[in-house]
Design goal:
Length: about 180
């Protein structure tokens, strides 16, 4: 029976390969849609971490890779609760939603605003960058969130390096402080 289980898991894993490519200097990671997913690897990673068996199973239901587990682990290692991490990352394709919510929350956005912005399996740090850049310009927080949230968000033209990212966070946090709207 064990041999059959190991062989079955191996056959699922073969279909869950991640393809990393670079297009115009931007890294992309793709998971092929054909062949079905492999929720077992995801469940094992989540269950080996802080999540119960039931939480891991719920988190990884229908997963095609270990993205939901990696996402939930990163969010939970940050400033977010178990439930927030599980709700954000269920159905995620990568660690992207966690990267997004952590960056948005480091900026002027409240917890609820950050989760609303990043509550998409397609969310990435670029989703947060989009909202931060919009808010640093002429747009209100609400307008920035509305423009950038969801799977069809306005992606930024380029990824920010660490220095640019730090400068943008300072700029938008200062704007929120001046307006008296910082995390309220």
């Amino acid at each position: 029976m064990r041999l059959f289980l190991v062989l079955s898991l191996f056959s699922f894993t073969a279909f869950a390969q991640v393809i990393d490519i670079d297009i115009n200097g931007r890294p992309y990671s793709c998971t092929p849609r054909s062949g079905g997913g492999n929720p077992m690897e995801c469940i094992e990673i989540a269950y080996a971490g802080p999540f119960t068996r039931n939480e891991a199973t719920r988190l990884c239901a229908g997963a095609r890779n270990d993205g939901p587990a990696r996402c939930a682990l990163k969010a939970y290692a940050g400033p977010f609760t178990r439930d927030e991490s599980l709700n954000l990352c269920t159905g995620a394709f990568s660690v992207g939603p966690a990267d997004c919510v952590i960056k948005a929350y480091a900026g002027p956005f409240t917890r609820d605003e950050s989760f609303r912005l990043c509550n998409s399996p397609y969310a990435t740090v670029s989703t947060a960058d989009c909202a931060l850049r919009a808010y640093s310009g002429p747009y209100t927080r609400e307008e920035a969130l509305r423009m950038c949230q969801g799977s069809k968000s306005l992606e930024t033209a380029e990824l920010l390096n660490k220095e640019e990212s730090d400068r943008l966070l300072i700029e938008v946090n200062e704007k929120a402080m001046r307006e008296g709207t910082y995390k309220r």
